[in-house]
Write a structure and sequence with these properties.
Elements (H helix, E strand, L loop, with lengths): L7 H16 L9 H4 L2 H13 L11 H7 L1 H13 L9 E6 L6 E6 L2 H19 L15 H12 L6 E3 L11 H9 L5 H8 L3 E8 L2 E9 L2 H7 L26 E3 L1
Antiparallel strand pairs: 1-2, 3-6, 4-5
Length: 261
């Protein structure tokens, strides 16, 4: 989340969840949903979304609009929807951006700020649990890890007797993650039905493409893209070699699937 400081109360929550998950690898969390709509968690989630300076979703609501309406009021209404289990994600805005290779376009989903905030709040609660289970060679979409840290680990392996690097790209991985298998992987740690239904009950929604003539439906777009990317590693297909020293990096910062051998 860049240089945005995590509030102490949220840090304490995340530390407690991580410690429980790390200390008891077989423990399954059954009471998490009320943490998602905590005022401090939702407010920090909103701040994280604002710090990313993303574009408006299909409802065209901007951060300036929310703050003119009243941020406390807006967050309170979202918290009430979550608490009463009335929250439903909206279709995401679909745009296409050029691929880094220059060959074709990559679809990009832009959810509403409301959905981004709710999804980020869930990520703040779930991430420390799954972070406890991840091996050191996993670098994609993890706190304090990125493409550079993966390259540094590969470099370290090369300096300790490993002689080859295989660069493997899983084509369109995020667009083709099997929903049921991902849900099974998540459920090995999280059994709070309210969280599972909130996060994974509607895996695909019709996308909305904004054009000069107004709104029209286009290709289906996965709901919850922030968690889709962050939890993709939970169901990651392990790329192993006979030396058992992979360095895995989900698509991030222009580097894909670096594997040290």
């Amino acid at each position: 989340m860049g240089n945005l400081a995590t509030p102490l109360s949220v840090q304490k929550l995340q530390t407690a969840l991580h410690a429980k998950a790390k200390g008891e690898p077989g423990f399954r969390f059954y009471a998490l949903y009320d943490k998602v709509y905590r005022e401090d968690v939702l407010r920090h989630a909103y701040d994280c979304c604002k710090a990313n300076r993303g574009a408006a979703g299909p409802d065209e609501e901007r951060f300036e609009d929310i703050e003119a309406y009243g941020l406390d009021r807006w967050l309170g209404e979202l918290a009430q929807e979550l608490r009463e289990k009335r929250y439903k994600p909206q279709a995401a805005r679909r745009v296409y951006i050029p691929k880094q290779s220059g060959l074709g376009l990559r679809p990009l989903s832009i959810p509403t700020i409301r959905d981004r905030t709710a999804q980020t709040a869930a990520k703040l609660v779930l991430e420390p649990i799954f972070e406890a289970d991840l091996p050191s060679e996993q670098h994609g979409y993890r706190p304090e890890r990125n493409a550079l840290s993966a390259v540094k680990q590969v470099h370290s392996l090369l300096n300790t007797g490993h002689t080859h690097v295989v660069d493997a790209d899983l084509s369109e991985y995020y667009e083709s993650i099997p929903h049921s298998e991902l849900l099974q992987s998540v459920a090995r740690r999280v059994v709070d039905r309210r969280v599972l239904d909130f996060q994974f009950g509607e895996p695909r929604l019709p996308g909305v493409q904004l054009g000069a003539t107004g709104h029209h439906e286009t290709d289906v777009v996965e709901s919850g893209p922030r968690l889709r990317e962050s939890l993709a590693f939970v169901g990651w297909v392990r790329v192993e070699t006979n030396t058992h020293r992979p360095v895995r990096l989900a698509e991030h910062d222009g580097v894909t699937g670096a594997v040290g051998v």
